[in-house]
Structures are given as C-alpha cells and as structure tokens.
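cache lookup: miss for this entity combination. No prior model stored, computing from scratch. Input as submitted by user K.M.:
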Amino acid sequence: MPTSTDTAQPALPKNFLRPCLLLLLREAPAHGYELLDRLRAFGFEGSDPGGLYRALRKLEGEKLVASAWQRSGAGPDRRIYELTRAGRKELHRRAKALAETRQTLASFLGRYEEFVALDAPRRARGRARERDPEREEAAARG
Amino acid sequence: MSELEVLKVREEVLQAMYWMRAEGLADEPSARDLSSFLAVPADTLATYIDRFVAEGHLEATAAGFRLTETGTAAGKRSFADEFADMTSGAHGECGADCTFCNSDPNAAASCLEQNLNGEHAHQH
C-alpha cells in the first residue's frame, strides 16, 4: 500500500491513505481486510496490511476512528472500524483541501494542454484497439 | 532492554499478531513479516520475540511464530483496553445518528462547516 513515499500509479497526493480510509469508513464500518480490498479503487494496488494496520492505529489514537471486537463464528473475533464524529470533521477538512488541490491541478493541466493534448495518446491507443488485423491482412492480400 | 520497553513491545507484537490472524492475513508470521508489518528493524525485534517465546506468549513454528493461548488472550485484551474510551463523540457533534446531517449532502456540509467554526445550529 502506498504511503508518503509510495510509487503507486497514478501518483497519489501525500498521505492520501488517511482521507481514503476516513471516506471508506464514512461509507460503512469495515474490517481490515475489507478496507484493503476497497482501497484499490483509490489507486492502492499493492497490498500492504502493515501500512493499513499502522494507519488505522494512528487514526484510532487520534480518536478519528473507533473500533470494537465483532464476534466471529468460525475464527477469532475481528476488529471492526467505524468513523467517529471527530473523524467526520477531519474527513471534511481533508476533502476541502483536496478540492482546492483539484482546482490547482486543473489550472496547471489546462495551461499545459495549450501545448500538448494529454488525452491524445489514450485516443490513439483506443483507435489502435479498434483496428482488426485480420481484415487488414485480407485487404492487403486482396 | 528495560522492562517498560518489553511491556510496550510485547503489547505491540501480540496485538498485531492477533489482528493479522483475525483478518486471515497470517497465522504464523515470520520475524521478517512482523518487522515489516510493524515497521521496525528486524534485528531490534528478534531479541524481543525470543523473549516472548520464552515467556510462553509465542511459540516457534516451521513458518514463523504463532500466538499461544496466553498470547492470544493478552493480544486481544490489550488491544481492547488501549482504545476503550475512544468511541463517543463530544457534545454537540453529529455522527451517524444525526437525522439532519444525514438527510442530504448540503445539510451535512452546512453542519460540518458550523462545527469547524465552533458553532452548532440544529438539535438532535
């Protein structure tokens, strides 16, 4: 899981794991393993349970997240995490900061795209995928 | 190593191992796994782990280390104790039970903004 020195693609904001965890817990209380899975949607591709564990402990230590044991029929009891009221406020602060970052990035990208169209390679890849090599080969033969 | 350090590291290791086991991530993590999981140098951790084995909190296996019954109970207990008083919000704050804030995103934004400014306008 990416941390402040992560190398995930696409590049993520510094400490992005923190607001992501708060948001996921705003959506629904969850166990650790489930959070690992749901983090993938935010670009955290590599599984790093230790990073998640330490982040959750830190959030809990700051009273932004609370956890409790949940009885398990088969295995050991599991820790289930939920957002506290203070966590909601911290999430709101972080979301507002990200919204400001979005504006800054949009400004940067808009100015850069006056020189280079960033989505051109993607469009070109799409066109290449639409090509049918068999048909092209047949056309070349015929 | 001081006894206070041993106590602190023991709690950290047993809690982490309990969590890993409960989440189905590892029943018998190696010393390297634990070192990586807790983000502490392997050499530092190794001495402590030997001691926890000698105390009967852990047992060595072919793959790594497993919590004993004593270790399992200690890991679970210390985890619960550490965060025992952290579940409730302060007066005037809104949470999942607030029908006003959870009615729509605009209401939630309004409430959170007021909270950040030290105000709170609606009743629960």
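stored under new cache key. The first helix of chain B runs from residue 3 to 22.
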